[in-house]
Amino acid sequence: MKDLSVMTIEQRAFYLAKRAYAAEWRKKNREKLNEYQRNFYLKQGEKKSMSETPISDND
């Protein structure tokens, strides 16, 4: 989290409004958020498994 004490009043208001909007969006769109997270971790798993497992045709 950012240090709000070093921000100007305008920066702080913008930052807090942006956080509030994002929190409200996440509440309203839980199914989208879950889908995004699921897709992200599936892709991460694919990347990791591809980098760890060399493919060989000699088996």
Q: Order of helices and strands, N to C? A: HH
- Cα-to-Cα separation, first versus last residue: 51 Å
Strand content: under 5%
What is the count of helical runs? 2
Percentage of helical residues?
Answer: over 70%
Using DSSP, what is the number of strands?
A: 0
Radius of gyration over all CA atoms, rounded: 20 Å
Question: What can be said about the biggest beta sheet?
Answer: none
The helix/strand class is mainly alpha
Word description of this protein:
- With 59 residues, the protein is mostly helical.
- It contains 2 helices and no strands.
Layout of helices and strands, plus pairs?
Layout: H1 9-28, H2 30-52
Key attributes of the depicted protein:
59 residues; mainly alpha
Entry summary:
The chain is mainly alpha-helical. Helix content is 73%, strand content 0%. The chain is elongated, with a radius of gyration of 20 Å.
